[in-house]
Specification:
alpha+beta, Arc Repressor Mutant, subunit A, 2 domains, two-stranded antiparallel ribbon, 8 helices, 12% strand, viral genome packaging
């Protein structure tokens, strides 16, 4: 069975932020029931398959796949904080930081000027730089989940053959075969 135009719109909208309620609203479903309709649509086999196929196509298009994600997480987890400082222990200017630090490992930078004197004699004598780092433990959790070591898994589920037909169809789509 083919998707309706509204279901196709839901699939496209869902891929934006993976929020089923907001995707349902943006696709034209009732705002009052969107919190119920979104999850219902996600449970619909054809919608689920269309989302999986669209994610696969997007991954191929962007060349961002699980290997890329894992390499990036490992690179971030192994980034050395010492790379941000010079040999005197002073923080380097941002343009001297390794690229991995400039791409999100630093969550914030605060610079406070230090002054001495008062009135007209007041002059800046230095500054204090404070770095707020992003959550590196979260990266390790993601790596642990990604490589299936289950080190940080909240729940362990056992599954059987449910969804097997969908997975086979998706694998066929990936391989470009019909039968």
């Amino acid at each position: 069975m083919a998707l309706t135009a509204k279901q196709q719109r839901f699939v496209a909208e869902y891929l934006i932020d993976l929020n089923s309620t907001q995707a349902a609203i943006r696709a034209g479903y009732s705002r009052e029931n969107a919190d119920k309709q979104g999850p219902r649509l996600l449970a619909h086999p054809e919608v689920k398959f269309a989302i999986d196929a669209a994610k696969l196509q997007r991954s191929e298009r962007t060349e961002i796949d699980s290997d890329w994600m894992l390499r990036r997480l490992v690179e971030e987890a192994e980034a050395d904080l010492a790379d941000l400082y010079d040999e005197r222990g002073d923080l380097k200017s941002i343009d001297e930081w390794p690229e991995i630090w400039r791409k999100g490992l630093v969550a914030g930078l605060e610079i406070d000027a230090l002054y001495e004197g008062a009135g007209e004699d007041r002059r800046q004598v230095g500054h204090v730089r404070k770095i707020k780092l992003s959550d590196r433990v979260r990266r390790l959790e993601l790596i642990g989940k990604h490589v299936r070591v289950n080190a940080f898994q909240d729940q362990v589920s056992v599954s059987g053959v449910e969804g097997l037909a969908d997975r086979i169809a998706l694998a066929k789509l990936r391989n470009g075969s019909d039968g």
